[in-house]
Amino acid sequence: MRCDMARVRINNGPTIETEGSQTAMRAPSIAERIKADANRIEYENDVTGRRIGVRQLDFLAVHDLTVDVGGELASNGPAFNQILAVASVAEIDGDPVDIPASHLQVRAIMKRLGFHGVKAAMSAVSRFGGLDEDLDAIKNS
Predict the structure, then answer these.
(1) pLDDT tens for residues 87-135?
(2) Residue 69 vs residue 99, higher pLDDT
(3) Which of 32, 51, 100, 104 has the fewest CB neighbours in a 10 Å radius?
(4) At CA 119, angle to CA 105 and CA 98, rounded to 5?
(5) Closest CA to 113 of 77, 130, 76, 88
(6) Is residue 128 within 8 Å of 134, Cβ to Cβ?
(7) Does residue 52 contact residue 45 with C-beta atoms inside 8 Å?
(8) DSSP state for residue 102 in the 8-state scheme
(9) Are the CB atoms for 41 and 90 separated by under 8 Å?
(10) What is the model's pTM?
């Protein structure tokens, strides 16, 4: 039996299509990228040497945080960005951190992280790319 074309998935990355001796790479689709991002953890070391891991929050988690912290904080852009970064923390030095379910839990994670940990979390979160980019790509496809 001869196989003219094979598809191979490598670490949720691009698809490699092989035909004979020619190989072509295809960029992952928006849906593939979103699915991979849902399980991805980005890491950043803070200046004290702690390894901070962050997850990408889904829309419902962001909505719940908005409700939990209240309208005044949610409408304050810089403060809410810090809250989102803190809520995105999945682990600190390998210790798992749950998504906070209240403003008090957000504050407890902030206290544990301190300034340097929050800064590292914000840096790691920024590597996920924005929702605006995904929406623009969907509109243009």
Answers:
(1) 999 999 999 999 999 999 999 999 999 999 999 999 999 988 765 555 4
(2) 99
(3) 104
(4) 30
(5) 88
(6) no
(7) yes
(8) S
(9) yes
(10) 0.68
Alpha helices in 40-76 (DSSP H): 59-69, 71-74
Q: Do 109 and 100 contact (CB within 8 A), yes or no?
A: yes
Structure tokens at 116: 């340097």
Instruction: Report residue 5 CA to chain centroid gap.
Output: 34
Chain centroid, CA 121 distance in Å: 11
* Residue of 33, 31, 97, 110 whose CA lies nearest to 69: 110
- Amino acid in the structure at residue 31: A
Give tens-digit pLDDT for 8-32.
344 444 545 455 555 567 888 888 8
Angle, in degrees to the nearest 10, between helices 77-87 and 59-69: 120
For residue 41, the cross-strand partners are 55
